[in-house]
Design brief:
Radius of gyration: 16 Å
Number of strands: 8
């Protein structure tokens, strides 16, 4: 079974291509024009064990918002497409993910029902990188991905002061939970309803 997907998303604001292989080696490269976001997306791919290529251009002269959102949507759709019928997947995953003083809890379910709980109160911080990534966009990026992937996701900040550390712990945790949830460990659909 080859669990791969390519998604292209083109709007008046952005052009995005995502190439994804779920059963990869963590070889992840993102080129969105937003270096901090690229770093976070590569964390997802690396820690999920996905082979991931993201190429995006967007209206960064206006803001980074549209590019962040559309890349999240395209990546989520690629995950959903690559999962196919989800037969045999582990489905659930959760964990606590530290990065220095920051600690983030992540839990997800490949439920087919998009729902996100985001309890990550960011300390005040200037935007990160050039062009700047507004830390508030971390929620939008993660929510866009989870909604397009049709997963239930809970992200809770346990503690943390450094915004870079907090956001990076979120993306690493998301990657690790995706790695565990998409793992094939059986031959049946993990649902009593017979559908995910």
């Amino acid at each position: 079974m080859t669990r791969q997907a390519t998604v292209r998303r083109t709007t008046a604001e952005t052009s995005v291509r995502v190439d994804l292989a779920l059963d990869g080696a963590g070889d992840a490269v993102a080129r969105t024009g937003i270096p901090f976001y690229d770093h976070m997306l590569e964390q997802v791919g690396k820690h999920a064990g996905f082979d991931l290529r993201i190429e995006a251009t967007g209206d960064l002269h206006i803001d980074t918002h549209h590019t962040v959102e559309d890349v999240g949507i395209a990546l989520g759709q690629a995950i959903r497409d690559a999962l196919g019928d989800k037969v045999g997947v582990r489905r659930f995953a959760s964990g606590m993910f530290p990065l220095d003083e920051a600690l983030v809890a992540v839990a997800l379910d490949l439920s087919g029902r998009p729902f996100v709980v985001w309890e990550v109160a960011m300390p005040e911080c200037l935007p990160l990188g050039t062009p700047p990534f507004d830390p508030q966009l971390a929620e939008h990026a993660v929510t866009s991905l989870a909604t397009a992937a049709a997963v239930t996701l809970h992200v809770t900040l346990q503690r943390g002061r450094n915004v870079h550390h907090i956001i990076e712990a979120v993306f690493k945790g998301l990657g690790r939970c995706l790695r565990d949830a998409v793992r094939v460990e059986g031959t049946t659909l993990p649902s009593t309803k017979g559908a995910l």
